[in-house]
């Protein structure tokens, strides 16, 4: 599947080129899926019309599928289109991965993005691009305050509380920067892409959009022609300030650039347009 055009515009020359494939010898796009792979169906947050909506947790599991080169059927699911088996037996939880073995009819249902990611990695495709590299759980721990801090700040509607919410977020982002600076390679665990990266990257994408849209805060400066609606009326000085602010965490900035540009991130089955992400956070804020 050809990737859609990148929504990101880079205002300065490409940085160090890094090999984004998880393993030089096992490019997920060329490695054939094992013959015994069951049919995969992925249910995630969707509109009643069946359009995919914003969910960084679903995006995580989809990135794992993309890195494995695994074909799957995507079923965007709204509260009114949830199947009975999902509601009755799995508390209606999304995202949800269903595997079905055509030969035996055996079926597994997995909910929770991390459980889904681990299942895909360890049970379905253990030989393609292994993602549970040493230290990934510790890396997850190190960056874990970020998402809650970001969501807390974005959802806060009381201006008096904004400074403390923003401080918590900035500290959480500093922790991500420190983690990256402590590595010799481009990922949270050094040279090896792991589940920790694939979990973090969609959350960073949501943060870039929601912080710009609702809090006038930029953590990533090079955000595209297609999201120009986020920067309407911005002056040259504001642009310069935005770039300076975002560049205060150089490793994080470099990390986001590399990850946001990867073909897996831009895979059309999992990429969610910024407008939909902004809309989702607007709803979460009660706007
Ligand atoms: N901890 C869960 C969180 C999943 C979650 O919160 N999903 C939300 C959207 S971000 C969702 O799908 N909501 C729609 C629904 O439940 O109907 C996971 O990692 O899977």
UniProtKB/TrEMBL annotation:
<dbReference type="GO" id="GO:0033355">
    <property type="term" value="P:ascorbate glutathione cycle"/>
</dbReference>
<dbReference type="Pfam" id="PF13410">
    <property type="entry name" value="GST_C_2"/>
</dbReference>
<dbReference type="InterPro" id="IPR040079">
    <property type="entry name" value="Glutathione_S-Trfase"/>
</dbReference>
<dbReference type="GO" id="GO:0045174">
    <property type="term" value="F:glutathione dehydrogenase (ascorbate) activity"/>
</dbReference>
<keyword id="KW-0560">Oxidoreductase</keyword>
<dbReference type="InterPro" id="IPR004045">
    <property type="entry name" value="Glutathione_S-Trfase_N"/>
</dbReference>
<feature type="domain" description="GST C-terminal">
    <location>
        <begin position="129"/>
        <end position="265"/>
    </location>
</feature>
<comment type="similarity">
    <text>Belongs to the GST superfamily. DHAR family.</text>
</comment>
<dbReference type="Pfam" id="PF13409">
    <property type="entry name" value="GST_N_2"/>
</dbReference>
<protein>
    <recommendedName>
        <fullName>glutathione dehydrogenase (ascorbate)</fullName>
        <ecNumber>1.8.5.1</ecNumber>
    </recommendedName>
</protein>
<keyword id="KW-0216">Detoxification</keyword>
<dbReference type="InterPro" id="IPR036282">
    <property type="entry name" value="Glutathione-S-Trfase_C_sf"/>
</dbReference>
<dbReference type="GO" id="GO:0016740">
    <property type="term" value="F:transferase activity"/>
</dbReference>
<dbReference type="InterPro" id="IPR044627">
    <property type="entry name" value="DHAR1/2/3/4"/>
</dbReference>
<keyword id="KW-0808">Transferase</keyword>
<dbReference type="InterPro" id="IPR036249">
    <property type="entry name" value="Thioredoxin-like_sf"/>
</dbReference>
<dbReference type="InterPro" id="IPR010987">
    <property type="entry name" value="Glutathione-S-Trfase_C-like"/>
</dbReference>
